[in-house]
Specification:
seven-stranded antiparallel beta sheet, alpha+beta, 32% helix
Length: 164
């Protein structure tokens, strides 16, 4: 994920929403319900305050490339592709280069993807229809994922909860 104000804000907002959901799911004994309700209210206040700080997305122009069997520039992705060659697998390289010279590379093969962006790596399921990487998701292994969804330009796909 690129280090942008939008991505950083979205990640924290998603974490706050997740914390709220987790707190709601804890089944505590009756004598703790008052404290739990108070904690939920405080966390909800925090999430609402954070929502008010939502930044605008930073404008970038992207040059996008799609190459069947393409060779990534990133060393880790090159090693991955080398393994694909040895195993006889097909893959597609998606490369996006911003007007700020940021490079995001994603290798997609058999519905799975690995993205290199901002010095980090993200693995998961590739949704070809939506063209997004669902980080950590693996339907074959029954893994639901982390909840992070990244575009080919490494922008976090997030819509704030309207109820906050």
């Amino acid at each position: 994920m690129l280090k942008t104000a939008w991505n950083e804000w979205s990640l924290k907002a998603l974490q706050l929403e997740t914390a709220l959901l987790a707190l709601e799911e804890i089944e505590l004994p009756e004598e703790f319900h008052g404290q739990q309700d108070a904690a939920e209210e405080k966390l909800l206040d925090l999430a609402r305050a954070w929502k008010q700080r939502q930044p605008a997305k930073e404008p970038r122009r992207w040059e996008r490339q799609t190459q069947a069997g393409g060779v990534p520039r990133d060393a880790e992705l090159k090693a991955l592709v080398t393994g694909f060659k040895e195993d006889g697998k097909e893959w597609t390289l998606l490369r996006a280069i911003s007007d700020q010279q940021e490079v995001v590379e994603t290798v997609v093969s058999e519905g799975r993807a690995c993205m290199a962006a901002g010095g980090e790596y993200y693995l998961g399921q590739w949704d070809a229809k939506e063209e997004v990487l669902e980080v950590g998701r693996d339907d074959d292994a029954g893994e639901p994922g982390t909840g992070l969804v990244l575009s080919p330009t490494a922008e976090l796909q997030y819509t704030p909860d309207p109820d906050l």
